[in-house]
Amino acid sequence: MPLLAIHDLEVDFRLNDRWVRVVDGVSLEIATGETLCLVGESGCGKSVTALSIGRLLPEPPARYSAGRIEVEGRDVLKMDGKGLRSVRGGVVSYIFQEPGAALNPVHRVGAQIREVLKIHRPEKATDAEILRLLTEVGIPDPAERIRCYPHELSGGMQQRVMIAMAIATEPKLLIADEPTTALDVTIQAQILDLLLDLKHRLGMAMLLITHNLGLVGGLADRVAVMYAGQIVETAPAHALLRHPRHPYTRALIQSVPELGHPRERLLAIPGTVPTPGDWPEGCRFAPRCPKVRESCHRAAPLLDRLPDGRQVRCPFPNP
């Protein structure tokens, strides 16, 4: 049994007087100890999918209109408040992309970590455990930092505090939603190395949300590519990077700059991600696809399983 299994998830948002679908039939699985990267452009539904796992979207304006989200075999969408509290933090923890916004500005970082411990591991809500967690995530001089307010720390230090809070509950699944977006390149590499190290040492599974396929190679076991509310390709990371089958996946990879291969101009995907509620007929990538055919505008493709085991939502995948 997988640690996480999402089946045909549909999520809608109330917009004025109508419901708009933002996640449309998404299915994903994550095994114990596995790292899955969920990749796609901004606005494709990655973060909404991630927040749905802990049922963190406010209802309304959101509604879960169909599907199942099973964590350790239990459907999150059918849980009451007590059941949700047992999953949030205890099984699934989150690291958000803006630590400066996620941390409470009026409480010291030590107090914020202690609050997490009091809820999930009350016997460990001690200064010694807080110092251990800060040391584990690589914060220098933790005895001094424990008394700092978030604004007294750099962006990289704030993110390390967020990671300390996330692992304080000893979760089985860590969800990292664009954890390096607000950081410079050097700090990004340090945070990603830290997450990979913690994953192996603590035996966690990880769902990494990103729009950057350049991060995937050294982190992921498998990759799921998302476009316009749907999964368009899933495959082992090394196979997907070497041989992308969906035209959108190939376009994402080609838009990443490569060291040692200078180009006069970076390749870009023409057009923009369609707005939820205004998705085109047929294949949603068809208006931007270099391989589009007439039939692509008429029939919506299914997510088919290919002979090599990967799944692709395209009737004409790359050979």
What percent strand?
15-25%
Number of spatially distinct domains: 2
What structural class should be given to the helix and strand makeup?
alpha/beta
Enumerate how many helices there are, as a single number. 10
Instruction: Name the CATH superfamily assignment of the largest domain.
Output: P-loop containing nucleotide triphosphate hydrolases
- Give the CATH topology of the largest domain: Rossmann fold
Major sheet description: 8 strands, mixed
Known CATH architecture of the largest domain: 3-Layer(aba) Sandwich
Radius of gyration over all CA atoms, rounded: 20 Å
Termini separation comes to: 33 Å
Q: Class of the largest domain, according to the CATH hierarchy?
A: Alpha Beta
Short structural description:
With 319 residues, this protein is α/β, with parallel strands linked by helices. It is 28% helix and 23% strand.
Overview of this structure, please?
There is one protein chain. The mean pLDDT is 89. The radius of gyration is 20 Å and the shape is globular. The protein has 10 helices and 12 strands. Strand 1 and strand 2 form a beta hairpin. The strands form 2 sheets. An 8-stranded mixed β-sheet has the order 6-7-8-3-9-10-12-11, sandwiched between helices. A 4-stranded antiparallel β-sheet has the order 2-1-4-5, covered by helices on one side. It has 319 residues and is of the alpha/beta class. The relative contact order is 0.14. 28% of the residues lie in helices and 23% in strands. Helix 5 (127-136) packs across helix 7 and helix 7 (155-167) runs parallel beside helix 8. The longest helix is centred in the middle third of the chain and has 18 residues, at 185-202. It has 2 domains: 4-91 and 171-312, P-loop containing nucleotide triphosphate hydrolases (Rossmann fold); 98-170, no CATH class.
